[in-house]
Amino acid sequence: MGTPVLKNWTPKEVFSFLEANGFEARSGKGDHKVVRNLDKPIMATVIDMGRKSFSMREMGNFVKQTKIPKKKWINWKR
After folding, report:
1. 28 in Cβ contact with 46 (< 8 Å)
2. Taking the model in full, what pTM does it have?
3. pLDDT of residue 28
4. Apex CA 16: angle with CA 10 and CA 21, to 5°?
5. Which residue of 23, 28, 49, 75 is most buried, as measured by CB atoms within 10 A?
6. Is the domain covering 11-70 a CATH 3.40.190.10 domain?
């Protein structure tokens, strides 16, 4: 079996994961949510809540922007 990958997460799953890891949402423009880390206000990302799911590339961007290790994302029970 290959390396585990991040793909096809729904916006709700991404948001739930980030909430469980110390992030808080604020309303963004339209159906977007700006999500910030309460302990490190510099760490933030935007979630488009109108999407069906996110690609591997987009999930990689969430990993980079939030600085949460990819392994933690992969092992999280959705």
Report:
1. yes
2. 0.87
3. 78
4. 130
5. 23
6. no
Q: Which two tokens stand for residue 2?
A: 């290959």
Q: How far apart are the first and last CA of the chain?
A: 21
Tokens of 33: 């949510």
Nearest one of 20, 3, 38 to 77, comparing CA atoms: 20
Q: Got the DSSP string for the chain?
A: --------B-HHHHHHHHHHTTEEEEE-STTEEEEEESS-TT-EEEEETT-S-B-HHHHHHHHHHHT--HHHHHHS--
Domain residues of the chain, as ranges?
Answer: 11-70
- Give the model's pLDDT for residue 78: 66
Query: In 3D, which of 25, 66, 68, 72 has the Cα closest to residue 49?
Result: 25
Residues forming a β-bridge with 46? 34
